Amino acid sequence: MKLTALVYLDPALRDSAQSQAHRLGVPCVHAGAVSSGEPRALQRFLTEQYDDASGALVLVLAPTGLALHALGMGYGVSIRADFHGPKIRYRRQQGGGRGQMIAKAVGIRRGVYPLVLDATAGLGADAFVLASLGCHVILLERVPVVHALLKDGLAQARRFGAAHDPDLLKVLDRMSLLEADALDYLSDHSYRQRPDVIYLDPMFPVRTKRALVKKEMRVFHALVGLDRDAAELLPAALSCARYRVVVKRPRIAPALSGPPPGHVLKGKRSRYDLYPLEKLPDGLHAG
User: Fold this and answer.
1) Are 96 and 116 in contact (CB under 8 A)?
2) 229 or 74: whose pLDDT is higher?
3) Looking at the predicted structure, is the pLDDT value of residue 192 above 90?
4) Is 240 helix (H, G, I), strand (E, B) or coil?
5) Letter string b/e over residues 55-90, b meaning 16 or more CB atoms within 10 A of that residue's CB
């Protein structure tokens, strides 16, 4: 599946929509009367617009932000980068703090907040958790559509934070987004500061038919594809990180090819393979 078009719902968004569509190399379409974004009306409009609806991916730009819609998979299949909605806000406020497994994997503890390079950012959920715990996080995303979703999600969250949630702005200030291929970035030694920790979460095959590895995840896999260069990422990361590399994997998946992890943290559905290089020092604050 590939991106078919960018549809905007409000005439006031035309310039932004045309700019993004040009950058992504797809047609820009105004949805006309479907200005409310009501899901069924929007889905009907999108389906009528495209002949091969079962294989179409369409970006929809609304006043509430940018979302990726997959046609032919039923109503409500849309993907966005969300950094301020109720679920992510609950995770930030009630998610367990430094006791979370991802925090232990990266090495967060009192007085220790590493600079983390999330080399496979995806929709940014893990990067946001790390930033909410006090780390500065550099997000790399090489897929232009996903980068666009991330950029918009951060912008929408910043608007929400300015109006309703000052603490959210502090988290967002610790997140920096770059459109870059991880291997290219890691091989370029001109970057100003080596990350303390490099975090890898390469895409892996969907092996289950459970509802969402669900529809949303199947769409994301179809758009992004597998990380065919995942095996190359580990040695590149090991040569770049200062203190450790962390690889997130499905619980039963094999480790990435290369040296075995020095330590493994296992959860119910996933695990973290840790490759320590040096001990994280006390009093480590990124940036």
Assistant:
1) no
2) 229
3) no
4) coil
5) ebbbbbbbeebbbbbbbeeeeebbbbbbbbeeebbe
